[in-house]
Amino acid sequence: MRGYYGDGFGWMWLWGLLLLIGIAVLVLLAVRLFTGGSGRGGAAQTGHAGPYGPPPYGQQGVPPGGFPGAKSQARLILDERFARGELTADQYRENLKVLGEET
To answer: Which UniProt keywords apply (predicted)?
Structure first.
């Protein structure tokens, strides 16, 4: 007599399915770990435009030349050095010319 549980293979398909899903998840995690993970904006990193096209600006949402009227990081450093007295007015103007940010 086989008893109450039948021949014991009634739920084996479920364990097999769960095992396959677990292996797939582990493989996916391993691939993301070793490739650095695409995270958000993966389409922009790979160069693929995706279904909605490329983002209007870079990945960080900043236009390539910066926002109009915004000072560059180099200009901000130059302004700080001039304010602290590390540069004379002539040196400041000369550095602005080098940066291409004459005012």
So the answer is: Membrane, Transmembrane, Transmembrane helix
What's the pLDDT tens digit per position in 41-80?
544 455 555 566 665 555 555 555 555 566 778 888 889 9
Query: What is the rounded average pLDDT for all residues in the chain?
Result: 74
Q: Which residues of 53-69 are buried (b: 16+ CB within 10 A; e: fewer)?
A: eeeeeeeeeeeeeeeee
Distance CA 96, CA 90 (A): 10
Among 77, 83, 78, residue whose Cα is nearest residue 94: 78
Question: Between the CA of residue 16 and those of 13, 26, 27, 29, 84, what are the distances in Å?
Answer: 5, 15, 17, 20, 70
More confident of the two residues 8 and 80: 80
**Residues with Cβ within 8 Å of residue 58, at least 6 apart in sequence:** 64
